[in-house]
Design goal:
Layout lengths: L1 E7 L5 E5 L8 E5 L10 E4 L2 E4 L1 H10 L1 H13 L2
Antiparallel strand pairs: 1-2, 1-3, 4-5
Protein name: DUF3006 domain-containing protein
């Protein structure tokens, strides 16, 4: 687990991650490194980042075409 400063959106999900420097409106939490950069599907519970798998699946489904396009383009450079 690492510590990071985050900003929560109105819906309670992490909206912004920053490094180890406190900025206005950010709170210090503990998180698994794998969650860093996940936006809009991670909540903070008792100071610890927790992935909401249902919300993540919902976001992925909403962006399915974009994700497929990114994978297709990524394959062009491998």
């Amino acid at each position: 687990m690492v510590k990071a400063f985050v900003k929560l959106g109105k819906n309670g999900y992490i909206q912004e991650w920053i490094a180890v420097v406190e900025e206005d409106g950010h709170i210090l939490i503990e998180t698994d490194e794998a969650l860093i950069t996940n936006n809009d599907c991670v909540k903070v519970v008792d100071g610890i980042a927790v992935l909401d798998e249902a919300k993540q699946a919902e976001i992925q489904e909403e962006n399915k075409e974009l994700l497929q396009q990114i994978e297709k383009e990524k394959g062009m450079y491998e």
